Every structure is written in structure tokens, then in C-alpha cells.
Amino acid sequence: MTDSDSSTSMHVPVLPSEVIEGLDLAPGKTIIDGTFGGGGHARLIVPRISPGGMLIGMDRDPHAIHQYGAQWRDALPGPEIAGTPLPQIELINDSYHRIPQVLQERGLDGVDGILLDLGLSSDQLNDPARGFSYQTSGDLDLRFDPTSGEAARDLLLRLPEKEIADLIYQFGEERCSRRIARRIVERRKERRAVTTADELATLVRSCVPRSKNHRIDPATRTFQALRIAVNHELRIVKQALEDLPGCLRPGGRLAVISFHSLEDRIVKYAFREADDLEILTRKPLLASDRENAENPRARSAKLRVAVKKGGSQD
Ligand SMILES: C[S@@+](CC[C@H](N)C(=O)[O-])C[C@H]1O[C@@H](n2cnc3c(N)ncnc32)[C@H](O)[C@@H]1O
Questions:
Q1: Rounded CA separation 246/164 (Å)
Q2: How far is CA 195 from the centre of its chain?
Q3: Cα-to-centroid distance, 244 and ligand 1 (Å)
Q4: 116 in the same domain as 193
Q5: Where are the stretches annotated Disordered (predicted)?
Q6: How many CB atoms lie within 10 A of CB 205?
Q7: What is the pLDDT along the chain (314 residues), one digit of tens a residue?
Q8: Which of 232, 251, 273 is the last residue of a domain?
Q9: Looking at CB atoms within 10 Å, which of 19, 45, 214, 291 has the fewest?
Q10: From the CB of 120, is ligand 1 less than 6 Å away?
Q11: CB atoms within 10 A of CB 288
């Protein structure tokens, strides 16, 4: 059992009013929250699409759906309190790149809005068993879905030095990637392989000169790189953004929040290349100073919104 099993979600949704406005919510609409997490955005969506409407929440992490999702449902206002019938709600433990299949299986020809809030949730970060936080001695796992794929610790045991260095450089934009990879492989040879989050963080700090910006831990880029690699994050978001415009009804909205430049670049070009989308955010929307002060996660968040052509707004 992990810490997250016994607590309710601590995740505070980023850019809440911008997401609500971006999705153009209204009673009766069908919305997919492709990254349900702690249900923070979903909680804002539900009252705005009722009466009627339908919310499909998806997450690759079984905890998000089966643990937080169950508590989230219990905390929704009953129909008599809300005064209007709640929308139909379905929570699914699956990846958002499978939205086309999810729609097909339910006989839906399209939806009115899709939200992707990329990255990891505060609940995942705060769970020492997942290895996302480098201040803990948790197992270096880093998978969103711990039941499938390869944990980061196994990747570091298996890959040759050059591939570890390339991965840390490519997905973390870390200039000391070669030094870090050399040290990881040296430790393997010494039979002291890196298997926990704090071991990796200590190793990286010993290889990377401390930057002037002391707020950012030198281990951040390496953890980001490994997380992206084990979850195939960039490949999945790229594929999904090719397919998702086809899942929207005319006038439907696609809203994507990214947290680092590699992701944001993919979103920006995917929106530009989609012939059937009109971009509504020429520049990405950022959090206000007030939100940044209240929710430090919002500092790196960028929201881009597009609308499927052919709706009444055209
Ligand atoms: C930033 S959190 C979302 C938080 C949510 N918007 C809220 O307000 O509570 C990102 C979530 O996306 C999930 N995730 C990451 N990759 C995914 C994928 N390919 N498909 C579905 N969910 C994914 C993670 O497991 C995590 O729970």
C-alpha cells in the first residue's frame, strides 16, 4: 500500500478559469478529460455541463481512477443539492492516445471538448513509493502506470552508457549527460547500481555544477528525462495530437497544458499542422502572478487552445 491509498487528492488544478473558458463549457456538452489526475479540472467541468452532458475522465495511472476517482465521485454534489441532474460520468484507466477507440466503443461520433493536462500530479509527486520526488528514498520507478512497461531503475540497469547519456540529453536537455551516464555505469560495475530516487539525485548533483538559479535542483532535468523515457511521453502526445482533432465535433475545443519546452513545441506544431483546427491562442496562456504565488506548479504551465473548424463560430 502506498501513501496515496489513504489520502484524498492534494492536486490543485492549474489555469482553472482559462481551462473553463478555453473549453467553452455549456449544459449538455460531452467533454473528455484525458488526464484526470486528482479530478481537479473535472470537478470544475461537471457543474458547467449539467444538466445533461457527459464527462469521460481518463488516466493511465490506476490510482488516479480507482482511488482518487472513487473519492472524487463521492464528493460530487447529489442531484438534489446541485438542483439539476448531474452529467453522465465515466472514469477509465487508459491512455489518452486511445480516445479514438474509447469513442468508437461507445458509439460516439465526436465530443465537444478534450482537455490534456500533461505531466504528473501532486499526488504522484508526493507518493514516496513512486520515485517521482528526488527527496525520498523511494524506488526509482517513475511510471504513470506501475503495472506496465519498464521502471526507470531497470532502464538504468539495462541500457549501455551511450544510450543513457543520449536519453538524458535529448529528454532532459542536460549538458552534463555524459558525465551522469558514466557515473551510473561505474556504479553498476561496482555492484552499487542506482535503484532509489535519492541515490540518483545525489549522483546527479555530484556531476552537475550548481546553477546560479538555486531554486531549481540540478537533478530536475535528469528525472524529467527518465520520466519521459519510461512513459514514452513525447511519442504518445505527438500521436494523440494527430488523432484528436478527428474526435471533435465541429466547434469542439482542444485544450492542452504543457510543463516544459519539449512538450510545448510538440503542441504548438501539432496545432499548426492540423488543417481542421483553428488556433485560438496565438501565444500560450500563462498563469497570473497570483496563481503562481498560490500554486508553484503553475509557474511552468502553458495552455494552448484550438477549435475544430466547421462550427457556428466560423
Ligand atoms: C498534471 S496531472 C492532471 C491533473 C488534473 N488535471 C487535475 O486537475 O487533477 C497529469 C495526469 O496525467 C496522467 N497521464 C500521463 N500520461 C497519460 C496518458 N498518456 N494518458 C492518460 N493519462 C496520462 C498522469 O498519470 C497524471 O495523473
A1: 36
A2: 24
A3: 16
A4: no
A5: 288-314
A6: 15
A7: 344 444 577 889 999 999 999 999 999 999 999 999 999 999 999 999 998 899 999 999 999 999 888 888 888 876 665 667 778 999 999 999 999 999 999 999 999 999 999 989 999 998 988 999 988 889 999 999 999 999 999 999 999 999 999 999 999 999 999 999 999 999 999 999 999 999 999 999 999 987 776 678 899 999 999 999 999 999 999 999 999 999 999 999 999 999 999 999 999 999 999 999 999 999 999 999 999 999 999 999 999 999 999 976 44
A8: 232
A9: 214
A10: yes
A11: 13
2 conformational bin, left if phi > 0, alpha if psi -120 to 50, beta if neither:
beta
C-alpha cell at 112: 465537444
Find cell 552534463 and name the residue. 176
Q: What is the CATH number of the domain that holds 167?
A: 1.10.150.170
Name the residue at shortest CA distance from atom 13 of ligand 1.
35
Mark which of 232, 250, 267 sits at the end of a domain. Answer: 232
Ligand 1 contacts CB of residue 72 (under 6 A) = no
CA 129 to ligand 1 center in whole angstroms: 18
Judgement on whether residues 112 and 239 belong to the same structural domain of the protein: yes
Are 137 and 153 members of one domain? yes
Largest CA distance in the chain: 66
164 and 112, same structural domain?
Answer: no
Ligand 1 center–CA 118 separation, angstroms: 6
301 C-alpha to ligand 1 centroid (Å): 14
Peptide bond into 51 cis (omega under 30): yes
Do 77 and 10 lie in one domain? The reply is: yes
Strands 30-33 and 88-93: unpaired
| Binding site membership of 155 for ligand 1 (Cβ less than 6 Å) | no
- Alpha carbon distance 30, 33 (integer Å): 10
